[in-house]
Design goal:
Elements lengths: L2 H11 L12 E4 L8 E5 L4 H10 L3 E4 L16 H11 L3 E4 L2 H4 L5 H8 L3 E10 L2 E9 L3 H10 L13 E9 L16 E13 L3 H11 L7 E6 L2 E18 H12 L4 E2 L6 E11 L4 H6 L4 E5 L14 E4 L2 H5 L2 H12 L4 E4 L11
Parallel strand pairs: 2-3, 2-15, 3-4, 12-13, 13-14
Antiparallel strand pairs: 1-4, 5-10, 6-8, 6-9, 7-8, 10-12, 11-14
Length: 363
Amino acid sequence: MTVREITRYLDSIAPPAYQESYDNSGLLVGNPDAEIKSVITCLDVTEEVIQEAIDKGAGMIVSHHPIIFGGLKRLTGKNYVERTVMMAIKNDIALYAIHTNLDNVEHGVNARLSERLGLKDTRILMPKGGMLRKLITFVPTKNVDEVLEALFAAGAGHVGAYDECSFRSEGVGTFRGDETTNPHVGEVGKRHSEDESRVEVILSFDKSSEVLSALKSAHPYEEVAWDMLKLENSLQTVGSGMVGELEEEMAASDFLAYLQNIVGGGVRYTQLIKDKVKRIAVCGGSGSFALGAAISAGADVFVTADFKYHQFFDADGQIVIADIGHFESEQFTIDLLYDAIREKFPNFATFKTAVNTNPILYL
């Protein structure tokens, strides 16, 4: 197995293009063509995790948080980041991070937390806008079906729970080729009129290159006319947080006890404004930015982490904020990554770290 085979698969389930602009997901250390015998999944990469990989003979570590975040100007071993990277390089261990791109997919970090909380009918809390594109092209009417097949196969045409979605309208196209051309129809040097269809399909922006390549391969013309438009529509399957329903209503105090039992840490929370709760919003990691969306979604409780003192006031009697801690809110990501790799490569040795990388200790 090569590092590239693992990264290609992980990139497919959480495309790097979905990461936030400040992030640094992807292969951070290592040769993508290096052969490896096993991989370890973890939340954070530390010197202890590198040593664990050495002891297990693992040539790759897949973490949620990137060890290199803001860039490294030197490697002198003066802090844990530099020491960890140096240790990985010295021992030929590849480091790959899958961070906010995994936060932003519907089967990612928040889905796993929602699953552990027993939430049903879940959906993305804050769908991302600007992620969609509309491709418009003009195809000889008799060739539309084969071109559409190619576009659909490349990933275009998905709208919510529907696929193979398109629109076409009929018209007449004209063109004239010079002496260097070899037109599919018509004659060189003469204007030709052809019955054509205007074809429109929706795609996510990360599929643009693949879809355009498929269009040009399937289209019969030498010169393919196309437009790619950026849409502000939200992509409902990509975005921050998740919201869903408990199977049954619970007393608010019982839910907090239930939550604490699942995550295994302390829970900081605001005033319990309702006797019963049912709709729960979650956002693994630092989620204060999603509080407004949780309130708008009608959530009774917002489960997240890293709220500052003054931010708790923003609950404002409209919702219960339950801050469970950053590590605690994302700890299930270790299992998520392990399960994903094992499902794809069942005969490849995959391990979950036994190192607790949470830097916060509790009395």
